[in-house]
Amino acid sequence: MEYVSPEGLRLDGRRPLEMRQIRAEIGAVSKANGSAIFEMGNTKVIAAVYGPREVQNRGQQMSDRALVRCEYSMANFSTGDRMRKPKGDRRSTEISLVIRQTMEACILTHLMPRSQIDIYVQVLQADGGTRSACINAATLALADAGIPMRDLVTSCSAGYLNSTPLLDLNYVEDSAGGPDVTVGILPKLDKVTLLQMDSKLSIDILENVMQLAIEGCKAVANYIREILLENTKNLEYRRGV
Amino acid sequence: MGLTVGFSPPPSLPRPSQALPLSPFTVLSLRRRPPSQALPLSPSFSFLKLPPFNDAARRRSASPLAAQPSTAVCSSSQPSLAATVFSACAHFSLPVRQFQTSSTTTPPPPPPATATTADSYTEVMVGLSLGEQHFIQGGIAQDIRCDGRKRLAYRPIYVETGVIPQANGSARIRMGNTDVIASVKAELGKPSLLQPDKGKVSIYIDCSSIAEPAFEGRGGDELAAELSIALQRCLLGGKSGAGAAIDLSSLVVVDGKICWDLYIDGLVVSSDGNLLDALGAAIKAALSNTGIPRVHVAAGASTDEKPEVDVSDEEFLQFDTSAVPVIITLTKVGKHYIVDATSEEESQMSSAVSISVNRQRHICGITKRGGAGLDPSIILDMVSVAQHVSEQLLNKLDAEIASAEAEDEDES
């Protein structure tokens, strides 16, 4: 199948190095300590953060740092065909783990010993790149909750189809079977915290594709920073400062 | 299209100039605190002085609905709530005027809510101090609740339709801090052998852990099952399909061979009480937003075992949702009952009755939950109140749905 037309356009009309439209919003779940909605094209996720709070299960309490937990779940209506999911299947468990590890790496857990931070992400619509969208949403929610972090973590995926590196794969491109590189970075520190790839790719192409994904992450980081700034200004205004 | 969840300002940070008109609880935080701190003598507490203590008669005449016709029947065994409230007030030397019960001198009896059985609604624990519990109960007894509502007033309802583009129809409803999404998906299937002339509708609810950390893992399953069953009972009618909100025979494509299976999925995004009513309203809105593709059956193929069909991409059939009932949950707290309870109020309930009422004011289903028994006469009284309230709710909901649909069309 042709994923990039001779004119250099992808199936949804984007150019190879173009991202889908991203949109973010802070404060979607009023009860949570922090929450955010993040959209990348048709992919839409909500993240909510509860904590830092008392550890629910005493056995897991750590005296030197905070416990970070994460749960990823998909709504029944999130996919094209309605799925009847058993909660906690292997895929969601794996993504929960990936998100937890990525976020744990940037949270300053040592500042909150004997406490627990819960990150819940719910996929409302899945159209490829849910992993990245979840991480971006979780970053925003953590920032909204005021949890100390080293840096924002942002994530973006890139792939390689029809001998062209493609940024931010959608569902059709994702299921084409080509390599899918998901990268998560700490943009200010310029460090990679998450790197996943399935399928095979030669080393020099991987370098290109990864570089592309990192550029995507940086674009997301700029956007997230803008949203956070705007949110803070809003709060400041409402407080009447 | 796309989910336009307008930026909702976090309620904890109102601008000083437009301070929220409600809720002493913006000051009285609802976290668990020692009772001595629970009711600080802040200006907000003067709220308790506002309602007229003495003229119950006037209140009764002002809102005939709110008056409890058979208080003697149901409350004789319960300690007087008002008594507990006022003895709580006495701590702060507020004027306790014209108080007629004799129990003011005795220490306040334990609030009745602590006796509530463990049904899954109360499992979502809200940590309330004794003072806060009295405050909620007393407010309800005086017909002015913590957020300033009357007993039979709903929170403002916001409706958005078309929030899930992949579904055939979807809607998001917000009532205060309760936030739910409902989606309708239609798939072609085979009718059941027992009812070859009817389509199938099923309702599944998912309590997402983003709404409540307690819903993590399998934690929300019990509540989800309870809500799904209650919604099925209220909206789908009996096994025969009689009294169903949706005309099941309209879902049949070829008799006995092909029909539409409607999957209605609800997702609780944020929970602050009254989930059932919100989900019922969201399903109603989602159904009004639903378009079922028109299906052309290949001519002369109806004798085949599996007729060929052609699903149209352009022509859609709309549902007539005027028959879809709304669900009114009346939550009994102390002697009185309220609509649209918040989770704090739900934690104080003794029992709740959910009644679904349609446009014709017919009762389409009743569910009672909560441990305490109810006098039959009170249930009948609740039904008539629900019928009355349903009319206002239906009108409001229909207006909101219509405006959401109009907005949705403008966008697309």
TrEMBL record, chain A:
<dbReference type="GO" id="GO:0000177">
    <property type="term" value="C:cytoplasmic exosome (RNase complex)"/>
</dbReference>
<dbReference type="GO" id="GO:0071028">
    <property type="term" value="P:nuclear mRNA surveillance"/>
</dbReference>
<feature type="domain" description="Exoribonuclease phosphorolytic">
    <location>
        <begin position="18"/>
        <end position="148"/>
    </location>
</feature>
<dbReference type="GO" id="GO:0016075">
    <property type="term" value="P:rRNA catabolic process"/>
</dbReference>
<keyword id="KW-0271">Exosome</keyword>
<dbReference type="InterPro" id="IPR001247">
    <property type="entry name" value="ExoRNase_PH_dom1"/>
</dbReference>
<comment type="similarity">
    <text>Belongs to the RNase PH family.</text>
</comment>
<dbReference type="GO" id="GO:0034475">
    <property type="term" value="P:U4 snRNA 3'-end processing"/>
</dbReference>
<dbReference type="Pfam" id="PF03725">
    <property type="entry name" value="RNase_PH_C"/>
</dbReference>
<dbReference type="GO" id="GO:0005730">
    <property type="term" value="C:nucleolus"/>
</dbReference>
<dbReference type="InterPro" id="IPR020568">
    <property type="entry name" value="Ribosomal_Su5_D2-typ_SF"/>
</dbReference>
<dbReference type="GO" id="GO:0071051">
    <property type="term" value="P:poly(A)-dependent snoRNA 3'-end processing"/>
</dbReference>
<dbReference type="Pfam" id="PF01138">
    <property type="entry name" value="RNase_PH"/>
</dbReference>
<dbReference type="InterPro" id="IPR015847">
    <property type="entry name" value="ExoRNase_PH_dom2"/>
</dbReference>
<dbReference type="InterPro" id="IPR036345">
    <property type="entry name" value="ExoRNase_PH_dom2_sf"/>
</dbReference>
<dbReference type="InterPro" id="IPR027408">
    <property type="entry name" value="PNPase/RNase_PH_dom_sf"/>
</dbReference>
<keyword id="KW-0963">Cytoplasm</keyword>
<dbReference type="GO" id="GO:0003723">
    <property type="term" value="F:RNA binding"/>
</dbReference>
<feature type="domain" description="Exoribonuclease phosphorolytic">
    <location>
        <begin position="151"/>
        <end position="216"/>
    </location>
</feature>
<protein>
    <recommendedName>
        <fullName>Exosome complex component RRP41 homolog</fullName>
    </recommendedName>
</protein>
<dbReference type="InterPro" id="IPR050080">
    <property type="entry name" value="RNase_PH"/>
</dbReference>
<dbReference type="GO" id="GO:0000176">
    <property type="term" value="C:nuclear exosome (RNase complex)"/>
</dbReference>
From TrEMBL, chain B:
<feature type="region of interest" description="Disordered">
    <location>
        <begin position="1"/>
        <end position="20"/>
    </location>
</feature>
<dbReference type="GO" id="GO:0071035">
    <property type="term" value="P:nuclear polyadenylation-dependent rRNA catabolic process"/>
</dbReference>
<dbReference type="GO" id="GO:0000467">
    <property type="term" value="P:exonucleolytic trimming to generate mature 3'-end of 5.8S rRNA from tricistronic rRNA transcript (SSU-rRNA, 5.8S rRNA, LSU-rRNA)"/>
</dbReference>
<dbReference type="InterPro" id="IPR015847">
    <property type="entry name" value="ExoRNase_PH_dom2"/>
</dbReference>
<comment type="similarity">
    <text>Belongs to the RNase PH family.</text>
</comment>
<dbReference type="GO" id="GO:0071038">
    <property type="term" value="P:TRAMP-dependent tRNA surveillance pathway"/>
</dbReference>
<dbReference type="Pfam" id="PF01138">
    <property type="entry name" value="RNase_PH"/>
</dbReference>
<dbReference type="Pfam" id="PF03725">
    <property type="entry name" value="RNase_PH_C"/>
</dbReference>
<feature type="domain" description="Exoribonuclease phosphorolytic">
    <location>
        <begin position="154"/>
        <end position="293"/>
    </location>
</feature>
<dbReference type="GO" id="GO:0016075">
    <property type="term" value="P:rRNA catabolic process"/>
</dbReference>
<dbReference type="GO" id="GO:0034475">
    <property type="term" value="P:U4 snRNA 3'-end processing"/>
</dbReference>
<dbReference type="GO" id="GO:0071028">
    <property type="term" value="P:nuclear mRNA surveillance"/>
</dbReference>
<dbReference type="InterPro" id="IPR050590">
    <property type="entry name" value="Exosome_comp_Rrp42_subfam"/>
</dbReference>
<dbReference type="InterPro" id="IPR020568">
    <property type="entry name" value="Ribosomal_Su5_D2-typ_SF"/>
</dbReference>
<keyword id="KW-0963">Cytoplasm</keyword>
<dbReference type="GO" id="GO:0000176">
    <property type="term" value="C:nuclear exosome (RNase complex)"/>
</dbReference>
<feature type="domain" description="Exoribonuclease phosphorolytic">
    <location>
        <begin position="324"/>
        <end position="387"/>
    </location>
</feature>
<protein>
    <recommendedName>
        <fullName>Ribosomal RNA-processing protein 42</fullName>
    </recommendedName>
</protein>
<dbReference type="GO" id="GO:0035925">
    <property type="term" value="F:mRNA 3'-UTR AU-rich region binding"/>
</dbReference>
<dbReference type="InterPro" id="IPR001247">
    <property type="entry name" value="ExoRNase_PH_dom1"/>
</dbReference>
<dbReference type="InterPro" id="IPR036345">
    <property type="entry name" value="ExoRNase_PH_dom2_sf"/>
</dbReference>
<dbReference type="GO" id="GO:0005730">
    <property type="term" value="C:nucleolus"/>
</dbReference>
